[in-house]
Write a structure and sequence with these properties.
- With 253 residues, the protein is α/β, with parallel strands linked by helices.
- It has one domain (9-238): 3-Layer(aba) Sandwich (Rossmann fold).
- The chain has helices at residues 18-29, 41-53, 68-82, 105-132, 155-175, 202-205, 216-227; strands at residues 9-13, 33-38, 58-62, 87-90, 137-142, 180-187, 238-241.
- Strands 3-2-1-4-5-6-7 form a seven-stranded parallel beta sheet, sandwiched between helices.
- Helix 2 (41-53) links the parallel strand 2 and strand 3.
- Helix 1 (18-29) packs across helix 7 and helix 4 runs parallel beside helix 5 (155-175).
- It is globular and about 55 Å long.
- The protein binds nicotinamide-adenine-dinucleotide.
- Nicotinamide-adenine-dinucleotide (NAD) binds next to helix 1.
């Protein structure tokens, strides 16, 4: 494992489990101090323990990314620990689905509040800190292939992730003058819980060149690249980590 992030101060939202957990482990393995932020205190503590067992550094943080004061407190905790914030990964999100015709306002608002407004709040609070400390920083969003094309039951989820992709682009433009890069990784079907089974459903497999779930660690590797100096001329982009899912057209020949 390279040590591209030695001495950097990072935070990752939703890092108590799943993709966020893998990103926190990866950034810590590359040398960053990671603030493991999650609404689930126990899950955050578990990730911190796992990181500590590898000999790397991390601290747990309770956050609800839908609440401005909670996000501001998370940023303040990162700064209190390390004196600055270099890397912010906004990953917390839900993938809940509902049929369009019967979708309630409550459902729509809940998905958008967490996946899009939460990402806006995290992006704004972390960018303000990066500007206040003299500029420089990297913000990485976790989008989804569902933000790139439509999907059954995914009107709210897909809209939230499509919005997140444009947020990434617009922030990249406005924050470039502060030397803050903003990019997103867009996972395809990723096995983050046993509930998802061993393989994606046949309808997904039919247009999945690599014909398997992604692993959270494979998404984390892309997030780490976007957080590292190695990607110094990359901003405003969305990197698919999806086994070719979003580029596949006709699969027979
Ligand atoms: N797993 C996939 O197949 C997949 C595919 C594409 C995109 N994604 C995206 O990746 C991200 C992570 O997904 P995952 O599969 O790891 O999910 P997950 O449910 O395994 O983990 C999400 C984490 O976010 C936390 N969280 C939920 N609400 C929060 C809040 N208000 N504030 C702070 N933390 C909160 C949860 O406690 C949990 O630890 C999401 O944004 C999701 O949309 C996942």
């Amino acid at each position: 494992m390279s040590r591209r992030l030695t001495g950097q101060s990072a935070l990752v939202t939703g890092s108590g489990r799943g993709i966020g957990r893998a990103i926190a482990l990866r950034l810590a393995a590359e040398g960053a101090h990671v603030l493991v932020a999650d609404i689930d205190r126990q899950a955050a503590a578990d990730t911190v323990r796992e990181i500590a067992e590898t000999g790397a550094a991390a601290t747990a943080c309770h956050v609800d990314v839908t609440q401005r004061a909670s996000v501001a407190a998370m940023v303040a905790q990162a700064v209190a620990l390390r004196g600055r914030l270099d890397i912010a990964v906004s990953n917390a999100g839900i993938m809940d689905r509902a049929p369009f015709l019967t979708m309630t306002d409550e459902f729509w608002n809940h998905v958008l509040a967490l996946n899009l407004s939460g990402a806006f709040i995290c992006g704004q609070e972390t960018a303000r800190q990066m500007v206040a400390q003299g500029g420089g920083g990297r913000i990485v969003y976790v989008a989804s292939n569902s933000g790139i094309f439509g999907g059954r039951g995914r009107a709210a989820y897909g809209a939230s992730k499509a919005g997140l992709i444009n947020l990434t682009q617009s922030m990249a433009i406005e924050l470039a003058e502060h030397d803050i890069r903003v990019n997103a990784v867009a996972p395809g079907p990723t096995r983050t819980s046993a509930a998802q089974g061993d393989v994606p459903p046949p309808s997904v497999m039919a247009r999945m060149p690599m014909a398997r779930f992604g692993r959270p660690e494979e998404v984390a590797a892309v997030a780490a690249f976007l957080a590292a100096e190695e990607s110094s001329f990359v901003t405003g982009h969305v990197y698919g980590a999806d086994g070719g899912y979003t580029v596949a057209g006709m699969m027979e020949g």
